[in-house]
Amino acid sequence: MTLTLYDTMARAKRPFVPVNPQRVTMYVCGPTVYNYAHIGNARPVVVFDVLYRVLRHIYGEGHVLYAANVTDVDDRINQKAVEEGVGIRVITDRYLAVYNADMAVLGALRPTFQPRATETIDAIVAMIGRLVAAGAAYAAEGHVLFDTQAYADYGKLSGRSLDDMIAGARVDVAPYKRHPADFVLWKPSKAGEPVWDGPFGPGRPGWHIECSAMIEQALGLPIDIHGGGADLIFPHHENEMAQGLCADHGATGYANYWMHNGFLNMDAEKMSKSLGNVALVHDLVAKAPGEALRWALLSSQYRQPLAWTDDVVAQARAALDSLYGALRRAADVVAVGDTPSEAFLEALCDDLNTPKAYAELFAIAKRLETGDGVERALAKGELLASGALIGFLQADPETWFHGGVDVALAARIDALIARRVEARAARDWASADAIRAELTALNVEVMDNATGATWRLKEPA
RNA sequence: GGCCUGAUGGCGGAGUGGUGACGCAGCGGACUGCAAAUCCGCGCACCCGAGUUCGAUUCUCGGUCAGGCCUCCA
């Protein structure tokens, strides 16, 4: 089984070969914690969580290091802190806690490292110092800028040349830049903004430098996989790579595989905080099971655009109903084996082809429904193990179908069902139907079977 | 303007140079006191034009449309 990943740099799928299979490294650009994350922000989190899980499966849990940064220095954070009259740490701690909780509901494992920019300042300052010493950066008017002309391959990742950028520049270029594409590594803080001391003057880091510093500090160059949203290819990742390599001339590379996920769209348009067309994860998890949201996020291959509608969530829930239904009907089957299906793993190893992997889950469920005793036992083991690999189907099926009903309501439902089972045993259809009506009014659907009945919430709680 | 994606059935969404996944929804049947589920079966698609080919949804070129990046952005 060969893992194949689409590499943005190569613009092709490539077999994945880690530098060191004992220590596979992955870095994914994380959130700026100044407000709630929207579901589009969650797509890379869930996508790269799947990759993280697949890598752990292949190389072993202790052999994969996954770092995702937390940007906690930023203009928007500063603004929010001023608005609320608190320090930035109050803001960033608050939204980081919400972020981590919401992502956990989506089934995302915590990265091995979650470094914060404010706790990486020393490494950032040191890296900028090395860039200046190497002649790849220069100071100007209190800023330190990266000299893009110092890096011959600048533009290689995003496929644009420095000449194109001059021609296409749509924004006024700061007069102190040697080249319009040069970008800030360090800038002076305005009054009231957080400030750190540096050899180039007091100030704060620019946007791109934290990732390079964190990668160097937490993982070391070159890393195996660098991930993020497609909008980060340029300028963020281009700049990261340029400064990261110029700061470490001994490095044989920056990232060996660059992976970028496509966007979530609202009405064919990119979901974006600046456009305001967002669905917040924090709101969604209150209305739908996190597992259903996760299923929806993975229902198209990660590089494809995904239109986010109520319908994708409803379809995700229906799909999970079907699989959990198969498990529920197989409650008395003792699962045999704990190995994911070969076909399932193969689909995932083909650049995380989750839709194809889903199809395999349904094929296994079919065997669970229709097979003989031995086949069912094997199918159940395979279904649970396959689901576990990418974070599905681990709940008790009854819990899934019962949703979040409280204990009192559950007890009342159980009592009604017990009475109905008795009525049916006595062939008292009138009473049985009356109780069904009563349960329907409680948003409960009863499913009769040979020995009794099970139930589910018709609409989400 | 430069660079880059994508266009598949009622919906979502894989994939393939030739028998056209999978899921949801729909239809028929089995089963069923009712209901649901399940099982069996059915229908429905590859943006337009040209080219290559015995044959293209799949390859090439052109076009149309949609979206993205070039400025904060997952």
What features would you describe in this structure?
Among the domains are: 19-115 and 262-308, HUPs (Rossmann fold, 3-Layer(aba) Sandwich), CATH 3.40.50.620; 310-400, Anticodon-binding domain of a subclass of class I aminoacyl-tRNA synthetases (Four Helix Bundle (Hemerythrin (Met), subunit A), Up-down Bundle); 403-457, no CATH class. It has helices spanning 39-59, 75-84, 88-105, 121-133, 162-168, 209-219, 233-246, 281-287, 290-297, 310-329, 342-349, 354-370, 373-390, 397-402, 407-425, 429-441; strands spanning 4-7, 12-15, 24-28, 64-68, 137-140, 143-146, 183-187, 204-205, 223-229, 255-261, 264-266, 269-270, 306-307, 444-448, 453-457. It has 16 helices and 15 strands. Strands 4-3-9-10 form a four-stranded parallel sheet, sandwiched between helices. A four-stranded antiparallel sheet has the order 5-6-7-8, covered by helices on one side. The protein has a three-stranded mixed sheet with strand order 12-11-13, covered by helices on one side. It starts with a strand and ends with a strand. The protein is elongated. The longest helix is centred in the first third of the chain and has 21 residues, at 39-59. The mean pLDDT is 92. The chain has 461 residues and is α/β, with parallel strands linked by helices. 43% of the residues are buried. The chain binds one RNA strand of 74 nucleotides through helix 1, helix 5, strand 9, helix 7 and strand 12.
